[in-house]
# Entry
Amino acid sequence: MTSNLEKSKSSCLYCGNNPIPHTVHKFYESLDIAFGPIRRGLSQSPLGAAGDKLGNLVGIGLYRILKAMGLITINTSIDEIKYDRARVIWAEAMRRQIPIEEIKPFNRSIDLYKSRINNRDFWFMNLPRREHVATSNLTWVDDKWLLKKKLREHSLPTAKGGAFFRYAAAKQMFHQLNKPVIVKPRAGSRGRHTTTFIYTEDDFWQAFKIAKQLCHWVIVEEHLFGDVQRGTIIGGKLIGVLGGSSPKVTGDDQNSILELIRQTDAGRPMGVKEIQVNPYFMQRQGLTMETVLPAGKTVYLSEKIGVNYGGTSFDATPYTHPETKAMLEKAGQVLNVSILGFDFIVPDIRKSYKEQKAGIIECNGAPFINLHHDPLIGESINAAKAVWDLVLENK
# Structure
C-alpha cells in the first residue's frame, strides 16, 4: 500500500500509471489546439489530399533510407510486441494468415506496423483503418471541447460545461454549474490530471492548476455520476461496451479504510493490481486512511478507473439499453471515423440514457480494443476481428 503511494508521488500522482513529460505534452497539445483551425482547413482542401500523398511518399522514402543504413529493425514475432492493443491485432492477422511485421526505427517500438494485403504494403500506426489520418476527422476527435460542441449540434448527450484559457472565466462557469464539478485538460487521455468531485472554490483553483500542467486550455463541466463505460464503434457499428470502475471499499463499522484496502488487495482477482489511493481525492471527501466507514457505505479512493488501479472491468454489452446503443452509433456516424472509442457515463446501463443524467465525456481515435478481449467479468469480444473485417472490406 505504502509503496504504491510512494511510487505515485515519485512520478506524478495526477498522471497515474501512465506518466508523460508535462512540458513537452503541454507544448505540443496546446500548439495543436491553437493552430488546429488552420490545419483542419488545409486538410479538407485539395492541398490536404496532396500533402497526405506527399507525406506517405516521404515516409516510405525515409524508411528505405534508414533500412539501407541498418537503422531499421524488423520484428516478426508477436512475443516481442510491446503494446497489448497491437498484440490482439497481430493475433487476428496471424489467424487470417495476413503477413505483418513491426517497424522499429533505431530499434525502438513506436507502434508502427506493415502488413501485406492483396500484394500491396499496408502501413499503419496504432490500428489499421480505412481512412487517411491526416485528412479525416481523426485530427480533432480527441479534442474534448470540439467533441462536446459537435455532439451538442446533433442533440447527443454531453455534460454541461465549457473550455477555458483563463481562470476568471473558468471560475464564472464553476459558479454556474451544479456541483460537484470535474476539471480536466482539454487535450489528453487516460484521465491524466483530471480532478473530480469538486465542490469548493479552493479545490477548483487547485484542480485548474493541475489541469493546466498538461494543456493551456481546461475543460470545466458538471460531474456525471456512475461507472465510466467505453463503447467501441467499428465501421459504424457498436461492437461492445466495456464498463470500468475506480478502486473502492465498503465499510463494516469496524475496520479503517487502510485495513479495508489490505483486505481487498489480499483477495483481488488475477489481473487486478493493488489499489492505488489518491490522497488529495480522499481529502476532498473528508476521508483519511484511519477513517472507519459505517457498515454498507462505499467510497471511491481515486479518480482513476480500471484494473490497473485496483478497480474493475466488465463487459456491459448484453445489459446496455438499445437506445443507448443507438445513441453511440449515431455519435460514430456524426464523427464519421471508422474506429472510435466513446467514454460515456450512464448511472444505470440497463436503462435508456434518456431517462437519466448521462453523457459522452470523451472520444478516443485509437481506442484500446484489447480491453474487450479480456474483461475481468463477462464475455470476451473479438474487436480485432471487426477491425480486420473493415480493412479487408475496402481492399
